Amino acid sequence: MNVSPEVLIDRGRLLIEQHRFPDAERELKQALSLDPNSDEAFALLARIKIDTHQSLEALSLIDQALAILPGEDYYLYLKSFALYQLDRLEQAENLLK
Length: 97
Hints:
Elements: H1 5-17, H2 21-34, H3 39-51, H4 55-68, H5 73-85, H6 89-95
Helix pairs in contact: 1-2, 1-3, 2-3, 3-4, 3-5, 4-5, 5-6
């Protein structure tokens, strides 16, 4: 059975809400294998990394989402939050201006 990237992303989002991060990550990576330009999948993977305090990895993922969809407010918020976790407060604040 073929599953669309959108369905995998929806599953990933639900799994994140349930704090089932490894399962969510698997679904989102599968979505990216089908659609490597899915900014939403990159952003949700970044959210997992933020929620699990892997902020450097989150920054890399969110930068990939921003490369696809520059200026997206939610992605900028995620990036600023990851910077905040890394105690890079000035960068986080400047990003939100």
